[in-house]
Design brief:
The protein has 302 residues and is mostly helical. The protein is built from 23 helices and no strands.
Length: 302
């Protein structure tokens, strides 16, 4: 049953009902019963107002004091998950973001793994510098990155020039089994460049971790889309290790609206209702009128 703090003063003014009549005849009646009684007595204002309540959001806001979140919550508490979902696309994006705070960190991380990679990376960028990301990623992720078919060999060779020569020499010795003596950096890179695809891949994987980090960072900085090559789970593990839930919620502000709505639909109805109470009262009333007429009729009748 919906019990809402209605503004009877507004109703009395609209229908031109005296205080005495309201107290004597209508004190125990619902809004609908009062309007019906007045309409039956020939009160044309009541007839018009009955129509207005079902079509005019501004009047609905006034009569049911929908600026008060508690009154919105009374209405929302009667709704199904499907009805509650109708309100989410009409909410301000900042309010949608605020609603994410009702999830635990584990749940947020789980949902992050399901969003498009670009949005996940943008969220990670809000919390970590590019240097930190490469530093915190496990070596297996660097190996996956460097051996990806997305990598351009010429660009890899260009960035290898920035790696200390002794690390390139160590890589060559590992690959050839021969000591590298008095070879210039140019000669060493020329040798690496002559490797067949499998040899080249194995050469990259044989680099020391610090060299892999340097090479990966150089490539990813040049084209930030390459940050999407790392596994979502690697990112969520990083977040879970270094960040707390409030920091994560703040960073998720950059996620697109449709993904936030999808996430919020996973909240229990009671928590989702609290989130929705933050929306503008008139927008709230407009949705009631257009999308929930049956529920609106029940509200007016009580």
């Amino acid at each position: 049953m919906i019990i809402i703090d209605t503004d009877l003063t507004t109703l009395m003014q609209k229908l031109n009902i005296s205080t005495a009549k309201m107290q004597q005849q209508y004190s125990m009646m619902s809004v609908e019963e009062i309007v019906e009684a007045e309409a039956a007595q020939g009160n044309q204002q009541a007839v018009e107002y009955a129509r207005e309540l079902f079509t005019n959001p501004e009047q609905l806001v006034k009569i049911f004091k929908l600026a008060d979140p508690n009154n919105k919550l009374e209405i929302l508490s009667e709704m199904t998950a499907q009805q509650l979902a109708l309100f989410l696309p009409e909410m301000e994006e900042t309010d949608l973001s605020e609603g994410l705070k009702y999830f635990t960190q584990d749940k947020l991380l789980s949902m992050l793994e399901s969003i498009p990679p670009e949005q996940l990376v943008n969220t990670v960028f809000e919390m970590f510098s590019q240097e930190e990301i490469i530093q915190y990623l496990p070596e297996e992720q660097l190996d996956k990155f460097l051996s990806s078919t997305e990598m351009d060999k010429n660009k890899i060779m260009e960035h290898m020039k920035e790696i200390p020569p002794e690390l390139i020499a160590q890589m060559l010795e590992t690959m050839t089994g021969q000591p590298v003596e008095d070879m210039s950096m140019e000669s060493m890179l020329e040798t690496v460049g002559g490797f067949n695809p499998l040899e080249f891949k194995n050469a990259l994987l044989s680099l020391q971790p610090v060299a892999k980090q340097q090479l990966t960072l150089g490539l990813a900085k040049e084209d930030t889309k390459l940050f999407q090559l790392f596994d979502a789970r690697a990112y969520t593990n990083m977040i879970n290790t270094y960040k707390q839930q409030p920091e994560l919620v703040k960073a998720m502000n950059v996620i697109e609206e449709d993904q936030k709505i999808k996430m919020l639909k996973e909240l229990p109805n009671d928590l989702l209702s609290i989130v929705i109470t933050q929306m503008d009262a008139q927008d709230f009333a407009d949705i009631l009128i257009k999308r929930c007429p049956e529920l609106l009729a029940e509200i007016i009748a009580r």
